[in-house]
Amino acid sequence: MAQNVYDNPDFFAGYSQLPRQVQGLDGAPEWPAVRALLPDLAGKRVADLGCGFGWASRWLRDQGAVSVLGVDLSQNMITRARADTDDSSIEYRIADLETLDLPEAAFDLVYSALTFHYIRDFERLVSMIASALVSDGGLVFTIEHPIFMAAAHPDWISDKEGRKTWPVNGYSVEGERRTDWFAKGVLKTTGLWQQRSMA
Ligand SMILES: C[S@@+](CC[C@H](N)C(=O)[O-])C[C@H]1O[C@@H](n2cnc3c(N)ncnc32)[C@H](O)[C@@H]1O
Predict the structure, then answer these.
(1) What is the mean pLDDT of residues 72-94?
(2) How is the chain split into domains, by residue range?
(3) How far apart are CA 75 and CA 94, in angstroms?
């Protein structure tokens, strides 16, 4: 069973205050670089895996996608996505990416932002995505860089002079790791698959 920390009330309350959730895509510093990777969306059938509040799902439709399926494990996230969306061509579904099966050759683009580092069985997920895409389909995804998730307490440390440092202990540890981020012991995974993906 996948960890579902986004349905933890304390976590959700903190996460909801992040600029990327309050302002949407404009509040995400990586968005201009990610947007530049996306193909022409006119007429495309898109899946948004780990869709959260649905900011990207709505943007994808605004750019001409013919349909968007937003998938997320969290009831909180999907409830909010549905409340913020008035578009019958966007379907939001609660499902676990660890076990999700999408129909074969049903999508032109799979998009995912900052979600795959929660997935233990990345090989299975990628194989499922490959079969869900048409032969000239595309996958665009982002994950958290290990420099962010490496430390057990990922936050700035200030010294007496006010200088700030970012802890990166445990950078080369592969596999599951637990960090305190809005809640104690949030489970994320890092390892060779990420390094291969970033190469
Ligand atoms: C950091 S948020 C990103 C949300 C959105 N993509 C964005 O960029 O704002 C990660 C999302 O992944 C979802 N998630 C985590 N593990 C999941 C899983 N096993 N299956 C489906 N969704 C998952 C969480 O519920 C959360 O909404």
Answers:
(1) 97
(2) 39-142, 147-187
(3) 7
The CATH architecture assigned to 39-142 reads: 3-Layer(aba) Sandwich (3.40)
Q: Is the CB of 8 under 6 A from ligand 1?
A: no
Tell how far the Cα of 96 is from the centroid of ligand 1, in angstroms. Answer: 10
Strands, E, within the chain: which ranges?
45-49, 67-72, 90-94, 107-113, 133-142, 157-158, 164-165, 175-179, 186-190
Ligand 1 and 182: CB distance under 6 A = no
Distance, in Å, from the CA atom of 172 to the CA atom of 180, rounded to the nearest integer, reads 18
Q: How far, in Å, is the centroid of ligand 1 from the Cα of 41?
A: 22
- 199 pLDDT above the threshold of 70: no
Count CB atoms within 10 A of the CB of residue 142: 19
pTM score of the predicted model: 0.90
Alpha carbon distance 114, 130 (integer Å)? 19
Residue 125 has pLDDT above 70, yes or no: yes
Q: What is the pLDDT of residue 78?
A: 98
DSSP per residue, 123-150: HHHHHHHHHHEEEEEEEEEE---HHHHS
**Average pLDDT across the chain, whole number:** 89
